[in-house]
Amino acid sequence: MKDILLLFDIDGTLIDSGEAGSRALNKAFEKLFGIKDAFKPISMAGKTDTQIIKEALVFHRIDNGMHMINNMISTYIEFLKMEIDNPRRTLKPGVAEILEFFDSRNIPMGLLTGNIEEGARIKLSPFGINRYFPTGAFGSDHEDRDMLLPIAISRFSRFGIDLTPDRCIIIGDTPRDVRCAKIHGARAVAVCTGPYSADALHSSGADLVIESLNHKERLISFLKEL
Ligand SMILES: [Mg+2]
């Protein structure tokens, strides 16, 4: 396991926020535009926050200019800080152990997530795992998840970690995580702890599909062969 970079998705992969994200989005939308449950018709898994907000604005026929999106984002963040404090939030199985394992072996880890950076940090903060991820690429960097890997790579290069995409492993729970790895020639590890079945993740082209991050040995033997 030399010269690799592990990039983790957040929702459905590292944590379950207890739906804090969708509640915060709905509350922000209701506060700004008076529409309840505005995100009910919008599918969210694997999309960036900016993309999700834009889709909701378009769906409800509201101006979707940058000013409106920024307004939504700052209101969402205020609600997220409260909503993350809920009894249903959990760390996904095996996460604490696997982060400790890679950290103890000095394997660099980052985030590659559709969450805007501030939201990502708020979601991870109650679990005390932000410290494993010095940087990454976020929904606040680009609306299109497919554009995030090169951003993550260039941020790590400032830490002296200079790797090509084929040395990067994206770990996520949706076909969108798999695609944003494969289009750049990176590896994709898919976990079945989100809304997608193993079959769906296999057919999306994942290099490895595991039930959860509890399957540490399978993940490690995959990484050793790279
Ligand atoms: Mg996810």
Bound small molecules, which ones? magnesium ion
Could you name the CATH homologous superfamily of the largest domain? HAD superfamily/HAD-like
Q: If you compute it from the alpha carbons, what radius of gyration comes out, rounded to the nearest whole angstrom?
A: 17 Å
Q: What order do the strands of the largest sheet run in, or round the barrel if closed?
A: 5-4-1-6-7-8
Helix/strand class: alpha/beta
Number of helices: 9
Alpha carbon gap, first and last residue: 7 Å
Backbone shape = globular
Taking pLDDT < 50 over at least 5 consecutive residues as the criterion, the unreliable ranges are none
CATH class of the largest domain: Alpha Beta
Element string (H = helix, E = strand): EEHHHEHEHEHEHEHEH
Strand content: 5-15%
According to DSSP, the number of beta strands is 8
Q: Provide the domain count.
A: 2
The major β-sheet equals: 6 strands, parallel
Give the overall pLDDT as a whole number.
Answer: 97
Percent range of helical residues: 40-55%
Based on the structure given, which CATH architecture of the largest domain is correct?
3-Layer(aba) Sandwich
CATH topology of the largest domain: Rossmann fold
Instruction: Give the oligomer, counting copies of the same chain as homo and different chains as hetero.
Output: single chain
